[in-house]
Design a protein that fits this description.
By secondary structure, the protein is an alpha/beta fold. Helix content is 31%, strand content 27%. The protein has nine helices and 15 strands. The protein has helices at 45-53, 122-148, 165-176, 191-197, 229-237, 261-266, 280-293, 296-301, 308-319; strands at 4-13, 16-25, 34-42, 68-76, 86-90, 105-108, 114-115, 156-159, 180-185, 201-204, 220-225, 239-247, 269-272, 303-306, 326-329. Strands 3, 4, 5, 6, 7, 14 and 15 form a seven-stranded mixed sheet that branches. Strands 10-9-8-11-12-13 form a six-stranded parallel sheet, sandwiched between helices. Strands 1-2 form a two-stranded antiparallel ribbon. It is globular. It starts with a strand and ends with a strand. The relative contact order is 0.15.
């Protein structure tokens, strides 16, 4: 590949924020010790915020966004990687404080990279991206109830914000693990879609978006929460003894108004999903399990492949809640 390549460049001059697809040189890339030919990136909510105005996450300009990517190593000064290795990157603030994946070539710290499992394609890795990785993390947190708590079987699991990227894939994974999944969605029109992913039942979010009791009837052995606020507060008081709640999003609010009673009386665990900063060892395990738990035929059916130009047309729709499904970005399209 030529030393010249295409990238999406963000810049800010005073109040003027710009997004431009430009041809740049390898010398533009200033971070890291591994150079990668990018096959795919994706579009997450955080990417949308960064594309809009930096999202208060980007401090230095010019900047290459894109918090996830997959591709093939071109050059490496890191002993863990060599030319030809296929790799995945999600998190570690790449695309925020480090140059990201909206580029035909990326250069990053090799300590941020995971070697792609052989049973997963580069495209499939980005169909999942941070959203799918977070879903997998959350599902394994629920499964930990059986393993860490010495055999107490998980039966009934609640997924909030189930129509979103993280929630919908979590429904699929938890069903594959053999659990009875109840999906919470604000749109009744998504009922058939969520049941096609494996939800046993679907309830409207209005049933949870109310002031919670001090403690309520135990219904759930595990919860994957993507929204926060009253919905999470109600899920907490409805969780069974020794239940695990994987907290992985704040689509509704950052706030949580709850009490200590369910935690003391039922031994509930509230587990935050640190998908951006979790260890490489944990990442390797989770990516290694992905192909066994994801039906990519289904996920690909609601995945759209975007060029950089199409990405700039799509991200405002994502921020407004007008884009449904997953979006991957092909820098070579």
């Amino acid at each position: 590949m030529s030393d010249q390549f295409k990238a999406l460049i963000l810049n800010q001059d005073g109040e003027n924020f710009t997004r431009e697809v430009k041809s740049i040189d390898k010398s533009f890339l200033k971070h890291g010790d591994v150079t990668i030919k990018v096959d795919y990136s994706d579009l997450n909510f955080k990417d949308g915020m960064i594309l809009k105005n930096g999202g208060r996450l980007v401090k230095d300009f010019p900047h290459i966004p894109g918090i996830d990517f997959s591709g093939t190593v071109l050059e490496s000064d890191n002993s863990k990687f060599k030319s030809g290795d296929e790799v995945i990157l999600t998190g570690f603030r790449v695309g925020e404080i480090f140059y990201g994946g909206y580029s035909q070539i990326a250069k990053v710290n090799g300590d941020f990279l995971v070697k792609k499992p052989n049973d997963l394609t580069s495209k499939q890795a980005m169909i999942l991206g941070t959203a799918g990785f977070t879903s997998l993390m959350s599902a394994f947190a629920i499964k930990a109830r059986e393993e860490i708590l010495l055999g107490e079987k998980v039966n009934n699991v609640l997924v909030t914000g189930a129509s979103g990227g993280v929630g919908s894939i979590a429904v699929m994974i938890l069903n594959k693990m053999g659990y009875n999944v109840t999906a919470v969605s604000g749109k009744d029109s998504n009922t058939d879609y969520l049941k096609s992913l494996g939800a046993r039942s679907v309830v409207n979010r209005s049933e949870f978006d109310k002031d919670p009791k001090l403690i309520d009837k135990g219904l759930w052995d595990g919860v994957v929460d993507t929204v926060g606020g009253k919905i999470l507060a109600n899920a907490i008081v409805q969780t069974n003894s020794n239940g695990i709640i994987a907290v992985c999003g704040n689509a509704s609010t950052n706030e949580l108004n709850t009490n200590v009673i369910p935690f003391m009386l039922r031994g509930i665990k509230l587990w935050g999903m640190d998908s951006a900063n979790c260890s490489i060892k944990r990442r390797e395990f989770i990516w290694g399990e992905a192909a066994k738990l994801i039906d990519f035929t289904k996920v690909q059916s609601f995945t759209k492949e975007l060029s950089f130009t199409e990405l700039l047309e799509t991200y405002p729709k994502l921020l407004k809640g007008e884009f449904f499904g997953r979006a991957i970005v092909n820098p070579n399209k």
